[in-house]
Amino acid sequence: MLGLPGNPVSALVSFLLLGEAALAALEGRRARPRIGYPLRLVEPFARRPGRPEFATACLVETADGLAAAIVGRGGSARLRPLAEADGLAEIAPNYAPVRAGDRVVFHPFATGRGLGL
C-alpha cells in the first residue's frame, strides 16, 4: 500500500518522487531515472525559499528556443492546470522570487510531442 496526499498535484509529485522508486524496488527492478531538461521560465513566479517546489508547466516556443510557462497558480488541489500542463517545473530551493529568465528543470509527462524532447 502506498499512501499519497489528497491534492492531485501533490499526489502526482509524491508518486513521481517516491512512489515509482518504491514500486520498482518491490518488483525487484531499478527505477527509471527522472528525465529533466533545463529551461528558462517565461514569467516570474512568486514563492517562498527553502524547499524545492514543483509547479505545473507548459512548454512554449520563444525566440531563444523552448521555455517553460507556469500554469494554474493557486494550489495543488486544482485539476485544470494539471490537465493543461506538459510537465512539472522543478524550482530549486534557493530561488525566491523566481524571475523571468531563471532556469528550472522541466520534467515532461511524456517525451516527444514534436518539440525535440
TrEMBL record:
GO aspect biological process, one term: Mo-molybdopterin cofactor biosynthetic process
EC number: 2.10.1.1
Superkingdom, taxonomy of origin: Bacteria
Keyword line: Magnesium, Metal-binding, Molybdenum, Molybdenum cofactor biosynthesis, Transferase
Residue ranges annotated for the MoeA C-terminal domain, each copy included: 39-109
Pathway: Cofactor biosynthesis; molybdopterin biosynthesis
Cofactor entry: Mg(2+)
Keyword Signal: no
GO cellular component: cytosol
Main enzyme class: transferase
Catalytic reactions of this protein: adenylyl-molybdopterin + molybdate = Mo-molybdopterin + AMP + H(+)
A molecular function (GO) term: metal ion binding
Function according to Swiss-Prot or TrEMBL: Catalyzes the insertion of molybdate into adenylated molybdopterin with the concomitant release of AMP.
Record family assignment: Belongs to the MoeA family.
PANTHER family assigned: GEPHYRIN (PTHR10192:SF5), MOLYBDOPTERIN BIOSYNTHESIS PROTEIN (PTHR10192)
Record-given protein name: Molybdopterin molybdenumtransferase
Organism: Salinarimonas ramus
